[in-house]
Design brief:
This protein is of the alpha+beta class. It contains 5 helices and 4 strands. The chain has helices at 27-30, 35-49, 58-69, 145-150, 154-157; strands at 5-7, 16-18, 84-86, 93-95. Strands 1-2 form a two-stranded antiparallel sheet. A hairpin with a 6-residue loop joins strand 3 and strand 4 (93-95). The radius of gyration is 19 Å and the shape is globular. The N and C termini lie far apart (57 Å).
Length: 175
């Protein structure tokens, strides 16, 4: 048996299953179907940010915030996404489904001084939710989170507060 494989322990079928990491930052990567896709998505997001820290517009960030955090913060009843994870850093949250892990560059919420993951102009969501670059409209008119967000009242959406950091003067490129 190689270091990267282990025997199936559940049914004794003798088949090898891929080794699953026990490292906390790697757990979400184990769920990924294609790590190459994750790298391509990350590269696209970085390129969209550019050298001048471009960011998503406020309505897009509000929609992304609704998709991730729900609307309970403004008195609504839409719960947060099941993939929303609480960071080990107090007051920060990250996506447990995208594979990026829990670190400063992947936090979904930020202060006005920092750049959050939701600030990237182009950003993919594993669930293809509204507000994200890979958004796909829901196929059914059930009461799913996606359908509710697609039909969300615009007057309520603007009540969701988001930070919009400006690039610090010392970080701006000299052109």
């Amino acid at each position: 048996m190689s270091m990267h494989r282990k025997k199936c322990g559940g049914c004794n079928c003798g088949k090898n299953n891929q080794y699953k990491s026990k490292h906390p930052l790697r757990k979400s990567v184990d769920k990924l179907k294609n790590p190459l896709t994750m790298m391509q998505s990350f590269a696209m997001s970085l390129a969209s940010r550019g050298l001048t820290n471009k960011k998503a517009d406020i309505p897009t960030k509000q929609l992304r915030t609704l998709s991730c955090f729900g609307d309970e913060s403004i008195g609504g009843s839409l719960p947060p996404c099941e993939g929303l994870g609480k960071s080990e850093t107090k007051g920060r949250f990250y996506c447990t489904e995208c594979g990026c892990g829990d670190r400063e560059g992947t936090w979904l919420n930020s202060t006005n001084e920092s750049y959050s993951k939701l600030d990237y102009p182009k950003l993919h969501c594993p669930k293809k939710m509204p507000g994200f670059s890979n958004y796909i409209m829901s196929e059914t008119k059930d009461n799913s989170r996606k359908y509710i967000i697609e039909n969300y009242d615009a007057a309520q959406l603007v009540k969701i507060t988001v930070s919009s950091p400006d690039m610090p003067e010392d970080k701006k490129p000299i052109i």
